[in-house]
């Protein structure tokens, strides 16, 4: 009936489309995840069905998206189209994608964006539009229908304008990222319509636009990250007539450039943002020596910032940086300070004494040395400090380091790892409340009573320890990984131990006495540490299997032969290229297949050796030295012959023996003198029939005249004359 015929046609069409999809993108076969990335596609493959939830078409050459392309992919959750050449999209291309949650159109060639594209994407949470060629977002909101949008990334090097209404309809965003390196026009109020933004990243060079954006975000953004800002003097207030309360709590500058003058102005302006509690500068540059306007800064009131992080700041003349005298009033409320990877070599004592509220200090990866530590940690400095990180500096004396740290009466946590102490004294002074000490990677070879007995956590991993026998009654965690220990520490000296790491040592086993009957709650050991014998057996078995496979492959492809032949060739290379005339014994060495021996031995040899004058031929059957290795026989015979005759036939190119002779000839003969080879075609043979690895022989057959044996007797006399002439040349 026609109903059956209709069903058949529909099923056949669907099957045909699925087959087309399978051919275009094999990973899409019966899978919910369809990865068609980097396949050189210039179109969206046909046959996409409702089964697919993730479609990756990135890094192709797609230029246009048509209405029908995604029509059947109604259950799509993720659509990745980044890094194509998309320049146009039909209005209803995404109309069926009501369940789509992530759309990536970044790094294409879209010169404009249409709100119609996104009108049906009611479930969309993540939208990436950066790296296209549009200069603005149009005159109306692109995103008014995207009520579930959580993250938005837009902009490009040519993006220049943001207008009011561009973000209309967006209420809350977790992350907003704008690449606006050349953003020069920003209409005030454009971002004000968004009620809440947890994290905003903006790439920006204009200080004027920066100020306008900050004013709009005071009541919505929690963390503002500004990148590539080239700061100029902007004395206008950042808050102007804005009403409290503000929401901006963290401000990050990344890849920005500062001057002493602008630092002073910025500190004053940021005090107006009364909600600001954290400042961060990452990979920034400072053109100056710290000559800040401390009077203007002090007169503007106290700073409310509690956390400052400075990571990898570049100061060209850092050794000339002054002591920031006059900044004391601005730091006494600071609680957390990180200055890392910034070549700090000391902190002036007067400045250090005014960090009265600071309890966390991180100076890792700097240039602190012991003879300046007396100034950095002077008496009464850092009075509230509880956590100190001095890892990856240039400290060399553990005794001096401990002595200066003793001045920090409230210190609980100390990290001095990755310094080159080497030696450890028998006695050290430490803060009385110290509970956590990190001495990992400090090149110490033993632990002594220098280690404080107050510790609850001790890390001495990645050193050269051979034993650990300290009395630490309060210790709860002990880290001993990457040492040379052969036995475990005794249980009695560390009775309160809860966790211990002994990875990558030289432990062979644990005895009952080492634990003294104490129950171990949890042990995390590698397979090697738990089952060393089993692992060794498995490794040996695996190695044996690999050796057997290599031997089998080598046998199949005659690897031993080729290795020995190569060695012989290398030895032959050291000899003179031509043997002296007195060592020439033959007119020609003959290379032929055993299947052609009747013609060679009964016809050619008789004709040449009975000629007048006779020719002296070298045949492997007759003239090779018995007991001598075959390769040495070949080398000696070729070197003692003026010419080499190759009797080519179908049998020759299929013969393994002849291949070996050709191999050596390929190495030795053709490299030295092409005229020494004489090719005889016993039967018609195409050069393509010769194995491809003998490229020089194939080339000779294509470029050099060869002798062809004529079946007709009347032409054979001319063949012999030509061959004899070639042998005499």
From TrEMBL:
Gene Ontology biological process terms in this record: inflammatory response; innate immune response; toll-like receptor signaling pathway
Highest taxon of source: Eukaryota
One Pfam family recorded for the sequence: TIR
TIR domain ranges (all copies): 584-727
InterPro entries hit by this protein: Leu-rich_rpt (IPR001611), Leu-rich_rpt_typical-subtyp (IPR003591), LRR_dom_sf (IPR032675), TIR_dom (IPR000157), Toll-like_receptor (IPR017241), Toll_tir_struct_dom_sf (IPR035897)
Family, similarity comment: Belongs to the Toll-like receptor family.
Name assigned to this protein: TLR21 protein
């Amino acid at each position: 009936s026609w109903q059956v015929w209709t069903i058949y046609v529909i099923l056949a069409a669907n099957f045909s489309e699925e087959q087309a999809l399978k051919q275009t993108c094999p990973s899409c076969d019966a899978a919910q995840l369809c990865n068609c990335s980097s396949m050189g596609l210039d179109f969206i493959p046909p046959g996409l069905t409702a089964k697919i939830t993730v479609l990756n078409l990135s890094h192709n050459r797609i230029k246009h998206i048509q209405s029908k392309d995604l029509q059947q992919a109604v259950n799509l959750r993720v659509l990745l189209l980044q890094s194509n050449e998309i320049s146009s999209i039909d209005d209803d291309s995404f109309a069926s994608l009501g369940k789509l949650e992530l759309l990536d159109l970044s790094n294409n060639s879209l010169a404009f964006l249409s709100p119609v594209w996104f009108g049906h994407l009611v479930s969309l949470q993540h939208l990436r539009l950066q790296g296209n060629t549009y200069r603005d977002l149009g005159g109306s909101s692109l995103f008014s229908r995207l009520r579930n949008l959580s993250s938005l990334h837009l902009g490009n090097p040519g993006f220049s304008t943001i207008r009011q209404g561009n973000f209309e309809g967006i209420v809350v965003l977790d992350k907003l990222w704008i690449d606006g390196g050349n953003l020069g026009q920003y209409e005030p109020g454009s971002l004000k319509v968004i009620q809440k933004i947890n994290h905003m990243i903006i790439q920006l060079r204009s200080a004027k636009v920066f100020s306008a954006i900050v004013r709009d975000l005071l009541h919505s953004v929690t963390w503002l990250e500004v990148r590539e800002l080239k700061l100029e003097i902007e004395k206008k207030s950042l808050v102007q007539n804005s009403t409290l309360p503000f929401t901006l709590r963290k401000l990050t500058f990344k890849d920005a450039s500062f001057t002493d003058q602008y630092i002073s102005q910025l500190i004053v302006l940021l005090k107006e943002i009364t909600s600001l509690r954290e400042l961060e500068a990452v990979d920034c540059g400072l053109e100056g020596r710290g000559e800040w306007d401390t009077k203007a800064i002090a007169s503007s009131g106290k700073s409310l910032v509690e956390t400052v992080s400075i990571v990898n700041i570049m100061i060209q003349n850092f050794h000339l940086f002054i002591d920031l005298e006059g900044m004391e009033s601005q730091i006494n409320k600071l609680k957390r300070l990180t200055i890392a990877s910034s070549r700090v070599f000391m902190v002036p004592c007067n400045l250090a004494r005014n960090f009265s509220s600071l309890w966390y200090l991180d100076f890792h990866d700097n240039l602190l040395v012991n003879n300046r530590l007396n100034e950095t940690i002077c008496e009464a400095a850092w009075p509230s400090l509880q956590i100190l990180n001095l890892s990856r500096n240039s400290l060399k004396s553990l005794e001096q380091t401990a002595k200066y740290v003793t001045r920090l009466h409230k210190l609980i946590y100390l990290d001095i790892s990755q310094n080159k102490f080497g030696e450890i004294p028998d006695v050290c002074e430490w803060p009385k409340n110290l509970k956590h000490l990190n001495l990992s990677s400090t090149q110490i070879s033993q632990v002594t009573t220098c280690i404080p007995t107050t510790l609850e956590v001790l890390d001495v991993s990645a050193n050269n320890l051979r034993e650990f026998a300290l009395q630490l009654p309060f210790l709860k965690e002990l880290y001993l990984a990457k040492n040379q220990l052969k036995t475990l520490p005794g249980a009695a000296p560390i009775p309160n131990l809860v966790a211990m790491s002994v990875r990558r040592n030289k432990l062979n086993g644990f005895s009952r006495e080492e634990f003294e009957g104490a129950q171990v709650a949890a042990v995390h050991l590698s397979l090697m540490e738990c089952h060393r014998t089993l692992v060794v057996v498995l490794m040996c078995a695996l190695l044996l299997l690999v050796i057997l496979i290599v031997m089998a492959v080598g046998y199949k492809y005659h690897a031993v032969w080729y290795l020995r032949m190569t060695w012989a060739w290398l030895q032959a290379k050291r000899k003179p290229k031509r043997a002296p005339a007195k060592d020439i014994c033959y007119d020609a060495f003959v290379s032929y297949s055993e299947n052609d021996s009747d013609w060679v031995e009964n016809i050619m040899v008789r004709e040449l050796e009975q000629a007048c004058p006779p020719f002296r031929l070298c045949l492997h059957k007759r003239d090779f030295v018995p007991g001598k290795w075959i390769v040495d026989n070949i080398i000696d015979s070729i070197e003692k012959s003026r010419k080499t005759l190759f009797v080519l036939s179908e049998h020759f190119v299929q013969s393994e023996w002849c291949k070996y002779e050709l191999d050596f000839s390929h190495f030795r003969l053709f490299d030295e003198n092409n005229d020494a080879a004489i090719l005889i075609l016993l039967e018609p043979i195409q050069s393509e029939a010769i194995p491809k690895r003998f490229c020089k022989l194939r080339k000779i057959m294509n470029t050099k005249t060869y002798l062809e044996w004529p079946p007709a007797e009347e032409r054979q006399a001319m063949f012999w004359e030509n061959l004899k002439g070639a042998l005499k040349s």
